[in-house]
Amino acid sequence: MAIPETDEAGLAVLRHSITDLVRRKGSDLSARQLSILLTCYLDNEGQTVRGLAAKLNVSKPAISLALDRLMEFDLVRRKVDPSDRRSILVQRTQAGLRLKEELGDIMKQAAAKACLVGLASGSGADGQPLTGHAALRRSVVSRREAE
Predict the structure, then answer these.
(1) Half-sphere exposure of 84 (CA within 13 A, CB side)
(2) 3-state secondary structure of 78
(3) Best CA proximity match to 39, nearest among 78, 76, 80, 87
(4) Is the distance from CB of 77 to CB of 91 less than 8 angstroms?
(5) How far apart are CA 14 and CA 8, in angstroms?
(6) Cα(22)–Cα(34) distance, rounded to whole angstroms?
(7) Per-residue model confidence (pLDDT) at position 139
């Protein structure tokens, strides 16, 4: 079964983003660590180890190991919840906020790169001819360049 064009474009953005992430200087995070980091920084509610485990459907020990690594890079901090000393709060840091912003920039650049590759070649990320909205977008861009 063929993957729809929009999914191919999304996968191309993901691929470009991951490639740029592993090429950058700094911490190299696993998918689990990145998922935990983004959950902590994109969800408005405070996070606990127990809550992250439930939300991501991952064991508490796996969350703890990933948090250990994120703490090594000062991307999060742990703090005992003063209202329930059995619970551990996961706190944001300035370094984590900077990485979140950098990830946003990387995603924007990756989306632009994936779009430009498709437009320049006349095909999508999978090498298939552009159709639908992508073909229309290419047509509009081509007309503007011709003017």
Answers:
(1) 7
(2) strand
(3) 76
(4) yes
(5) 10
(6) 12
(7) 47
In terms of pLDDT, which residue wins out, 141 or 11? 11
Inter-residue contact 67 to 53 (CB < 8 Å): no
pLDDT tens digit string along 63-76?
Answer: 999 999 999 999 99
In this prediction, residue 21 has a pLDDT band, given cuts at 50, 70 and 90, of: confident
In CATH, what class is 7-146? mainly alpha
**How far apart are the C-alpha atoms of 71 and 40, rounded to whole Å?**
13
- Written as six digits, the tokens of 49 are 């180890």
Q: What is the largest CA-CA distance in the chain?
A: 67
75 Cβ neighbours under 8 A, 6+ residues apart: 27, 37, 93, 95, 96, 99
Confidence (pTM) = 0.72
